[in-house]
């Protein structure tokens, strides 16, 4: 039996096994020589100071420029009714007629007397100019004409109080009036809400805040639509603070456009406070919360160009969307870890995954930023 092939194969296998152990030993020796240094992959960014305006959120009440409680001055029975609940009426339109037939008859009599007396006065003037009538007779006739004119004016005023017209274009409130219904004097009939291309929003600020200047813009959002923002401008400021709340009342003007608002509607208002200032803004995810406070990781390079993390405590200010203002602990131009900062610890080596970018306040205006 020939054992040479078996011997040859066995020798080759032995050589291969010995070689693999040698390579593995060399790798282990190499790693031990390099050192077992831990690291983490993160995204980084430079930060800079940006212009920032602080705001506070308060509530405001929308007001129509023209609002009227419709009240009848004279008592009487409703003879005609043109009011439609929720409908629109235009300036000068007749809304309600209260029975006034008696006043109309008296007015007709007064006008007849006036016309007759007016003819008499003209004739008396002609006679007086030809010295056929005394001055006293002319004066008495003229006085009687003025009396009849006064009666016409009085009756016309009484009728006007019983024919109620719209003082301005408005939307009519809901009412329960009926033809034939007797109305006592000073009955609250309904509401008229003026229709204009603008509305007011009233709000108040505590005395601890600086008084807002006229034309200062404020931002409105609806309770059922926090995404749509409506710009209003301060139009007037109350001359004194409320003696109960020590707050100063403001009124801002809203240009409506396609926006639908209702009088007395509650809205949220973002009001600027203080002056614009330069602050450092960073992504909120770059902040690590610890037992001793909040901190970020600075990324510094050593002499060999390797990047290491350094934990730095910071003080947080206002948060806007995905950004947070840093009031202390961070200077402009610093390189910090953003995405992946939670994987770092003090002194850990960091590998940067991205090209360096700079945060900007425009990020807070992006539709992708949540408030």
TrEMBL record:
GO terms for molecular function: efflux transmembrane transporter activity. One of its GO terms (cellular component) is efflux pump complex. It comes from the Bacteria. Residues 279-333 form the Multidrug resistance protein MdtA-like C-terminal permuted SH3 domain. Pfam families: HH_MFP_RND (PF25876), RND-MFP_C (PF25967). Residues 101-157 form the Multidrug resistance protein MdtA-like alpha-helical hairpin domain. Gene3D superfamilies: 2.40.30.170, 2.40.420.20, 2.40.50.100, Helix hairpin bin (1.10.287.470). SUPFAM superfamilies: HlyD-like secretion proteins (SSF111369). Belongs to the membrane fusion protein (MFP) (TC 8.A.1) family. This is Uncharacterized protein. It comes from Pseudoalteromonas nigrifaciens. The lineage of its organism: Bacteria, Pseudomonadati, Pseudomonadota, Gammaproteobacteria, Alteromonadales.
């Amino acid at each position: 039996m020939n054992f040479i092939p078996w011997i040859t194969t066995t020798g080759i296998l032995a050589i291969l096994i010995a070689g693999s152990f040698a390579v593995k030993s060399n790798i282990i020796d190499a790693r031990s020589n390099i050192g077992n240094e831990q690291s983490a992959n993160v995204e980084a960014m430079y930060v800079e100071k940006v212009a920032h305006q602080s705001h506070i959120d308060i509530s405001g009440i929308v007001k129509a420029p023209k609002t009227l409680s419709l009240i009848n001055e004279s008592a009487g029975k409703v003879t005609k009714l043109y009011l439609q609940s929720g409908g629109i009426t235009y300036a000068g339109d007749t809304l309600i007629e209260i029975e006034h037939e008696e006043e109309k008859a008296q007015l007709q009599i007064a006008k007849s007397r006036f016309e007759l007396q007016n003819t008499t006065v003209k004739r008396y003037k002609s006679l007086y100019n030809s010295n056929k009538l005394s001055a006293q007779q002319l004066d008495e006739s003229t006085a009687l004409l003025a009396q009849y004119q006064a009666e016409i004016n009085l009756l016309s005023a009484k009728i006007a109080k019983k024919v109620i017209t719209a003082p301005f274009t408005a939307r009519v409130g809901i009412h329960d009036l009926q033809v034939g219904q007797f109305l006592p004097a000073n009955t609250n009939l309904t509401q008229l809400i003026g229709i204009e291309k603008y509305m007011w929003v009233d709000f108040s600020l505590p005395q601890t805040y600086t008084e807002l200047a006229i034309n200062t813009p404020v931002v409105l959002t609806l309770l059922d639509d926090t995404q749509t923002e409506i710009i209003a401008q301060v139009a007037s400021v109350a001359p004194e603070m409320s003696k109960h709340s020590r707050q100063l009342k403001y009124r801002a003007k809203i240009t409506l456009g396609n926006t639908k608002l209702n009088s007395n509607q509650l809205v949220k208002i973002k009001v600027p406070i203080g002056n614009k200032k330069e602050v450092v803004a960073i992504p909120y995810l770059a902040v690590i919360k610890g037992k001793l406070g909040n901190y970020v990781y600075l990324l510094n390079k050593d002499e060999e160009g390797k990047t290491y993390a350094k934990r730095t405590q910071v003080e947080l200010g206002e948060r806007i969307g995905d950004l947070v203002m840093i009031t202390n602990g961070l200077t402009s131009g610093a390189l910090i870890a953003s995405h992946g900062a939670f994987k770092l610890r003090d002194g850990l080596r960091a590998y940067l995954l991205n090209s360096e970018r700079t945060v900007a306040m425009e990020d807070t205006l992006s539709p992708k930023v949540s408030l």
